[in-house]
Amino acid sequence: MTKTRDLLRKLINPFTTRHDSGNKVNKEESIEAIVEFERKAFQYDTLVTATRNFSEKLGEGGFGPVFKGLLEDGREVAVKRLAVGSRQGENQFANEASLLSGVQHKNVVHLYGFCIHGADRLLVYEYVANESIDKILFACSNDCPKRAELNWQRRYNIMLAVAKGLLYLHEGTHTPIIHRDIKAANILLDQRWVPKIADFGMARLFPADESHVNTRVVGTNGYMAPEYLMHGWLSPKADVYSFGVVVLELVTGCQCHCFVPFPGTDAKNLLEWAWMLYKERRILEMVDLEIRPTLDLAQVSTSVHIGLLCTQAEPKQRPDMRRISILFTKQPSTLEEPSRPGKPGCRYTSRPHLTSGTLDSSRNSLSSLGSGIGSSSYSTLASTSASASASSSKGKGLQV
């Protein structure tokens, strides 16, 4: 019972932390906040009815299964249900519910509410019709007819929109939010192909006056920035790095952790290959064959250039999301020249202190860090705790 009370206190916190100029809680605002909290708290029976007793399963992730539902007011929803006995899911539930409670942006998935019923923990999201990008982008055209619809202009629009969503998370919220797991699988597409950043189970708040914080490493191998993977140094530039990988995936149609070296090249991974072709002015060769008839060469060149800038080894050499949004409007010839991406310097060569179970595959991946992203055996990493409650030490002013 105490555990449930603590969880409820954490969930209601974002609604009741509004203060007046005298730094005292305004009673009227507090009442409104509690009403808002109640509005987001769904009854369990409502969700049972909406999902027809959890009968239409959309998929399953580390948190647990996701079911499609229809609320009485006509809204289609996706209901995430905590896997029974999942400590990780319990933490991710609290994290997502608290972080997303005040987030409103067209390129961030909308959380309608949540439900706590006995041991059940459920999150209620808007339903996004086209699922995640990875299920379309990395599928065979014969198996996924939608892949043919993912032409260059749609891919380019996805890049622009995801950049806007990340800019909002980093600068548009009361306290900056770092997603920590930006990847194609966590970007959903609605019926109009508008992307929405999803899955905030690993996200955490970031103090605006800090250069970075030190925290436990969670995320998906292949998308994690070198300084974060090696030392747990987390800043918004970690999301920038992940975004750069996604940009290169959209251009090439290749998945970073399933990259197969092409004949006649020594490139061991996607970043190496993109860098090699960029330096040799052979950008067209990296473009997904299926979209070549529809591409805009200037946009492709700009996108590749930005992808490489975002994946620089040194965080300070990566542009922030505000700068990235501006760079998309510029010609490639006016952009600053990137250096080789993802190659850690001497400060990133020591092994990080990892918590048990957080990065079980790191042993296999560290050998490939010389170029930032390994060539074959990457998997989604399980978070062992909510990032909102994970202990961390602040590194104010430390250069990373």
Automatic annotation (TrEMBL):
<dbReference type="InterPro" id="IPR008271">
    <property type="entry name" value="Ser/Thr_kinase_AS"/>
</dbReference>
<feature type="region of interest" description="Disordered">
    <location>
        <begin position="333"/>
        <end position="379"/>
    </location>
</feature>
<dbReference type="InterPro" id="IPR001245">
    <property type="entry name" value="Ser-Thr/Tyr_kinase_cat_dom"/>
</dbReference>
<dbReference type="InterPro" id="IPR000719">
    <property type="entry name" value="Prot_kinase_dom"/>
</dbReference>
<feature type="domain" description="Protein kinase">
    <location>
        <begin position="52"/>
        <end position="328"/>
    </location>
</feature>
<dbReference type="GO" id="GO:0004672">
    <property type="term" value="F:protein kinase activity"/>
</dbReference>
<keyword id="KW-0547">Nucleotide-binding</keyword>
<protein>
    <submittedName>
        <fullName>Cysteine-rich RECEPTOR-like kinase</fullName>
    </submittedName>
</protein>
<dbReference type="Pfam" id="PF07714">
    <property type="entry name" value="PK_Tyr_Ser-Thr"/>
</dbReference>
<keyword id="KW-0067">ATP-binding</keyword>
<keyword id="KW-0418">Kinase</keyword>
<dbReference type="GO" id="GO:0005524">
    <property type="term" value="F:ATP binding"/>
</dbReference>
<dbReference type="InterPro" id="IPR052059">
    <property type="entry name" value="CR_Ser/Thr_kinase"/>
</dbReference>
<feature type="compositionally biased region" description="Low complexity">
    <location>
        <begin position="356"/>
        <end position="379"/>
    </location>
</feature>
<keyword id="KW-0808">Transferase</keyword>
<keyword id="KW-0675">Receptor</keyword>
<dbReference type="InterPro" id="IPR011009">
    <property type="entry name" value="Kinase-like_dom_sf"/>
</dbReference>
